[in-house]
Amino acid sequence: MLDYKLHSKVLSNNDLIDYPSGENIGNALLAVLTEWEIMDKINADGAAVNDAALRHIGLKDKHAYCVGHKLNLVVKDFIVHYEPVVSKVRQIANCSTTAPSRQANYMHSS
């Protein structure tokens, strides 16, 4: 049976001696991926330095971006553009949950 659970482990904790450029990170990453024989199992966020590192080791088109990271970026962008609407919704929600009559109804129904 296949195990489709996400596993997250620290495989290496090496210090980069040089500046953390895409090339230097790529070389360090390549050493770990090779050592653990997991060249086909890479997941990274869309940071420019990560893209450069993956491009340096030839994996730019063979990795998956972290879905959670991308979703977080989309939500943050939405909030920035729609802050007035989000703020009003928060105010309405706050009023509806802090009004004495609402609190009494909530406490009675619990």
UniProtKB/TrEMBL annotation:
<keyword id="KW-0862">Zinc</keyword>
<keyword id="KW-0539">Nucleus</keyword>
<dbReference type="InterPro" id="IPR012337">
    <property type="entry name" value="RNaseH-like_sf"/>
</dbReference>
<dbReference type="GO" id="GO:0005634">
    <property type="term" value="C:nucleus"/>
</dbReference>
<keyword id="KW-0479">Metal-binding</keyword>
<dbReference type="GO" id="GO:0008270">
    <property type="term" value="F:zinc ion binding"/>
</dbReference>
<dbReference type="InterPro" id="IPR052035">
    <property type="entry name" value="ZnF_BED_domain_contain"/>
</dbReference>
<keyword id="KW-0863">Zinc-finger</keyword>
<protein>
    <recommendedName>
        <fullName>DUF4371 domain-containing protein</fullName>
    </recommendedName>
</protein>
